[in-house]
Amino acid sequence: SQTIHQWPATLVQPVGSPLSLECTVEGTSNPNLYWYRQAAGRGLQLLFYSVGIGQISSEVPQNLSASRPQDRQFILSSKKLLLSDSGFYLCAWSRGGSTGELFFGEGSRLTVL
Amino acid sequence: GESVGLHLPTLSVQEGDNSIINCAYSNSASDYFIWYKQESGKGPQFIIDIRSNMDKRQGQRVTVLLNKTVKHLSLQIAATQPGDSAVYFCAENDNDYKLSFGAGTTVTVRA
């Protein structure tokens, strides 16, 4: 069976510090990978998606970046966090080829102080 | 902006009653729709999906209805239980790789 892991689950960081959230998928190959952000009481905003190693599509301009160094690994990064980066970050995957059901991780709650 | 939205942000329902959650979408080219349930502090979980060549699909205690004429999607939950309390999101596939999500409806089940 397929599983998705993301970490850390919670993170408190000062403004201007770097960020690295990691996500790995097991039990499948060549998945589509996604990073979403969810502000408190709001819907899910797509930040990045990837259909293959090294292929990253960005949906919104921001100070975040994403990388996919391996087939089942997706990393969300920032060199300098802003207060507005606070939120609940969700990694997700879907079967490669086309969009179907998205399978979400448990999320990472980031608080920037 | 979001292409998928919800008619009501909150819904309070008596335990045992049926719940209906509504969603409007704007992209007439969307061909795939999903309902997700998100409990507090957790990632969204798949409930049910429907493709545009159908207008109704049933699962266990849940039914999704799709009206392409008015671009409306609904989720019906039969015999709502306390465990159904959560935020419910509709999502549409507006291109090959992406799902766009609505803002969510918070469902609260009264005992």
Strands, helices and their partners?
The complex is a heterodimer of chains A (113) and B (111).
Chain A: E1 3-7, E2 10-13, E3 19-26, E4 32-38, E5 44-52, E6 55-58, E7 64-70, E8 73-78, E9 87-94, E10 103-104, E11 108-112
Parallel strand pairs in A: 2-11
Antiparallel strand pairs in A: 1-3, 3-8, 4-5, 4-9, 5-6, 7-8, 9-10, 9-11
Chain B: E1 4-6, E2 10-14, E3 19-25, E4 32-38, E5 45-51, E6 56-58, E7 62-67, E8 72-77, E9 86-93, E10 99-101, E11 105-110
Parallel strand pairs in B: 2-11
Antiparallel strand pairs in B: 1-3, 3-8, 4-5, 4-9, 6-7, 7-8, 9-10, 9-11
Number of separate strands of chain B: 11
C-alpha Rg of chain A (nearest Å)? 13 Å
Secondary-structure element pattern of chain A, one letter each: EEEEEEEEEEE
Low-confidence parts of chain A lasting 5 or more residues at pLDDT below 50?
none
Q: What structural class is derived from the secondary structure elements of chain B?
A: mainly beta
Q: What is the multimeric organization of the chains shown?
A: heterodimer
Annotated CATH homologous superfamily of chain A:
Immunoglobulins
What fraction strand of chain A?
Answer: over 45%
Please give the count of helices of chain A.
0
CATH T-level topology of chain B = Immunoglobulin-like
User: What structural class do you assign from the helix and strand content of chain A?
Assistant: mainly beta
The SSE order of chain B reads EEEEEEEEEEE
Strand content of chain B: over 45%
> Main interface pair?
A-B, 24 and 23 residues
Number of strands of chain A: 11
Secondary structure tally, helices of chain B: 0
Name of the CATH architecture of chain A: Sandwich
Give the radius of gyration of chain B: 13 Å
Largest sheet descriptor of chain A: 7 strands, mixed
